[in-house]
Amino acid sequence: VGRVLCNGIVLSQPADASTAYTENAGSPNASIVYNYTFRACGNGPADYTVASSISAVTNASAPPAANAPTTTPNPAAAILNVGASVTLSGSTATVINLPSDGTADAVVNGLAVGDSVVIGTSVRQITAVSDPGGNGVATLTLNTALATAPAAGVNIVEQVPFTLTVTSGKIITLGTDITVTVNTTVSSSDGVTTFTSPADVTISTFTSNAGTTLVKLVRNVTNAAGNNAGAGAVTHQVNGVNQTYYSSGVVGNSGDTLEYILVMNNAGTTDVTDTRVTDSLPVSFVTAPTNIRVIVVNAAGTLVSDTTRTVVADADTATYTAPTLTVNVGDAGPANPPPGAGGTLTAGATVKVVYQVNIQ
What we know:
This protein is mainly β and about 350 residues long. The chain has no helices and 30 strands.
């Protein structure tokens, strides 16, 4: 029996959603999954196409740019077969009479055991199907009785679920949320006319912790006079000793050792995941980094750990590929050796990365 379409596609409208923006090994891996259902009206099965398009993006590149947000329906083909029919007289509240589709089997007009159907305004699941074929009367048995037996001529339409996954894309400005606006529709065609549901619009928000800061300071280790013009002095304890570092004004000569400290603080209210500190060194002027230390201070200001790292290809969390030093950090772990994921920096915690270079 051919499908007779009507312009009555009903698409559910899931609520807008949000989740924290995260990265894994420098690549965004945040996503939101929306659960949809839809149904249509008519007589006989038909194929329906799910389509989604991104209409607006903030704080990430818009498609088709690299690292832009994406949408992915499931089933992946985005084409769903939907059954439908109409009730005949003699139906009861649990056994529904409907026209045979001409074939004696366990499917009638695309409706089968396990399908969810809408009869009038009630949603039920099919537990048994009987179809004698020919011009006979088929039956559907429902899992739960309707409030009353339906009269003849009531639409029976399958209600079909699908999901849509929206990814964040790569963030442009840390501390500012990403928003992705997606329009989703379902459509079908009888070969002459295409019917399309009204678009459902979702706004996905990927939140970025605004409280994370990174400050870089330096001191001249071997030539104290190189610190005399230093400005923005800050004291940090390194290996049990208080040292004074400067934000600018430190100078040095060939052979001097400079010690840098990179201070990352999570002053926000949520944890930061996949946490890493990177620094680009001026390789024409300084040697490779040595004497690397990672210092962790918790939200209460208590020293948690002060440990060393090397840039040798080993199991610790620091690597150096000129000109970039990468140190995976975190106070709640796990921090894996690069290029694996960084650790978790809990709200209020501070991580300090210290390293030395020699001026060439």
